[in-house]
Amino acid sequence: MTAAGPRRVLVTGASRGLGLRAAEALADRGWSVVLGCRRVGDVGPVLARARGRGAPVSAVALDVTDPGSVAAAVAAVAELGGPLHALVNNAGVFRHEEEEFQDLRPGDALDLLLTNACGPLLVTRAFLPLLRAAGGAAVVNVTSRDADEDTFDGLFTGYRMAKAALNAMTRNLAIALRPDRIVVNAVDPGWIPTDMGGPEAPDSLDAAVAAVAGAVELAGGDRTGRLLRAQRPPGSPGRRRADGATRR
């Protein structure tokens, strides 16, 4: 917390899953949290609970694939007053239908790239003035181990490609934004039991939340351009394919 009040963080895709849990954890750590979600009404109960215990939280409508929505979100966050000390690019999509390459639909391919790669890039660009104003900030991109070449198995090509692009963005922006004291890192949360990951996911949601929150708190430091991984439970089997094999 600073003399002017708590540091502010925006979390995209914060209406459920990892984004919501990370937002709640950051509020508990003393951050002023802005939940970015496509429908603000979805987080009404969350806002009420957080405010009931004195946490400084708010929400803005934000669709990371819509430039108009992004611009409106920037204006809404600016109206809250003060700079933005951290941005968590968590919003993402996964399409089970594209498991086999021949089943990939053009619309899904575009959606994967727009949401998982272009969205974080354009959101970061739009919020750059507010991040610069903090005098030391953090951008955290939620990625996936599916982008690692040693996991390639011929499945989910569009998703892997989009997350690999996100990793390239992370490394390049870490260099570009270093003069502004903005660290840019990626976090691999593992395969976690959320709406996206499914109930059979073997990795720890709590560990993923801790990894994201820890990356946010690197704001103003010098640890940048890194791929940070959540701690995995011993013997975690990785993601199970339809044929019974596993992948991580």
From TrEMBL:
Matching SUPFAM superfamilies: NAD(P)-binding Rossmann-fold domains
Region (Disordered): 223-248
GO molecular function: oxidoreductase activity
GO CC entries: cytoplasm
Record bears the keyword Oxidoreductase: yes
Keyword Magnesium: no
Entry keyword set: NADP, Oxidoreductase
Top-level taxon: Bacteria
Record-linked InterPro entries: Fungal_SecMetab_SDRs, NAD(P)-bd_dom_sf, SDR_fam
Family the UniProt entry places it in: Belongs to the short-chain dehydrogenases/reductases (SDR) family.
Record-given protein name: NAD(P)-dependent dehydrogenase, short-chain alcohol dehydrogenase family
Biological source species: Streptoalloteichus hindustanus
